[in-house]
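Hey, quick one: can you model this chain's 3D structure?
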Amino acid sequence: MDYHLPETYLDGTVLLIDKPLEWTSFDVVNKIRKSLRKHLGIQKIKVGHAGTLDPLATGLVIVCTGKATKQISQFQDLDKGYHATIRLGATTPSYDLETEVDVSYSWEHITRPMVEKLLEEFTGDMKQLPPLFSAKSVAGKRAYELARKGKNVELKPHRIQIHNMEILSFDPPDLSIMVTCSKGTYIRSLARDIGTALGSGAHLTGLRRTRIGSYPVEDAISLENFIKKIKLL
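Sure thing. Here's the predicted structure for all 233 residues.
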């Protein structure tokens, strides 16, 4: 790819970006758009991402520019791969580290064989309730906006598919797993459900998206290095 030709981005480019921690997917899109305008002199260009990744997660985000934005829905429909770290024995309202622990539970009874059996049982089609702190639309507003204001939010479960889950490490109360799943799967909700099913509680402490369809994060470029390549840092 020639990073210095405006035509490269206007004609349509698919960028594999390794999203940094604490950035939203929209932050990434806005940074790329502003950088292209500033450095390449492009006055108007379409830039969009093909799937939201939470601010507290890192990993692969597909960003499309120009005419390639027409492909966004195709990328959104692809299966996703994740590495997730889960803390057993405690829950948070957001199901991750965005909010403080609200309830603590015993976790000492949980064994690796229990976890292995449960992950097998969780594989397949299921209905999942999205987190209250999510980008789901409720009455024209994002659910997380209402949740952060302490307002009651009623979300409906939706159907997902878990293709595969494997234990990467188990050092109680911390559990790391690999997940391959359909679009629309909330790994935070999966962490919550795993904790409940194990007779405890759980929340997500780390998440990295490793794959979208056949696109691995190993092929992605960091946002910082992308900006460097178009000489903006």
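One thing worth noting: The chain has seven helices and 14 strands.
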